[in-house]
Amino acid sequence: MQKDTLNDLFDNLKGEFDINQPNEGHENRFLDKLKASDSASVDSEKTSGFNWKPFLAIAASLVICFSVFATLQSEPEAMDLASVSPEMSEAQDFFTATIQTELKKLNNERSPLTEQVITDALNRIELLEKEYQNLKTDLNESNNDQRVIYAMISNFQNRIDILNTVLEQIETIKELKTNNDEPKNTI
């Protein structure tokens, strides 16, 4: 049935169809109009939509800054020997200065012969330094417990002892080297 009505429709419109060729440049004009309508719709989309990205980035940065600030404020400062009393402050200054002096001496003695001894000593000193950091935390938590204070003093003394022992070993190594290098007078 529909087939008949479609045939009838086309039969009735015979001769009214535009079968002529379009003017030259028609395709270019059509493409220009199409591009113009596309760019107009893109422009309207850009102006109509609100861009939240910059505001979200700023908000995230502020949240991170405030959380870091709050974290730093809430952590109590780790106490050390100097915070216990003025006498302990003097003792810590003395130990620290002595250790620095001994470390300078040790570094001045570096040579291929002494490198291994010095490296081992510095590794032990580093372990004692980490232990001292733990003792600082313990001192803070124990509210100036005398045992922790004695352990901190002992830690400083152990570091100085290690440095002195290594310097003595280096002197022995140098003496042995000198004795081995001297010509032997045998008669």
What would you note in describing this structure?
The mean pLDDT is about 80. The longest helix is centred in the C-terminal third of the chain and has 36 residues, at about 145-180. The chain contains six helices and no strands. The chain has helices at about 1-10, 25-50, 55-75, 85-110, 115-140, 145-180. With about 190 residues, it is mainly alpha-helical.
How are the SSEs ordered, and which strands pair?
Blueprint: H1 2-12, H2 26-48, H3 53-74, H4 86-108, H5 115-142, H6 146-181
What would a concise description of this structure say?
This protein has 187 residues and is an all-alpha fold. The chain has helices at 2-12, 26-48, 53-74, 86-108, 115-142, 146-181.
Structural class assignment: mainly alpha
Distance between the termini: 139 Å
The helix/strand order is HHHHHH
**Discrete helix count:** 6
Shape: elongated
Helical residue percent band: over 70%
Rg calc:
44 Å
Strand tally, please?
A: 0
Average residue-wise pLDDT? 80
Largest sheet: none
Query: Strand-residue fraction?
Result: under 5%
Unreliable sequence segments: none
Keywords:
mainly alpha, 0% strand, 187 residues, 76% helix
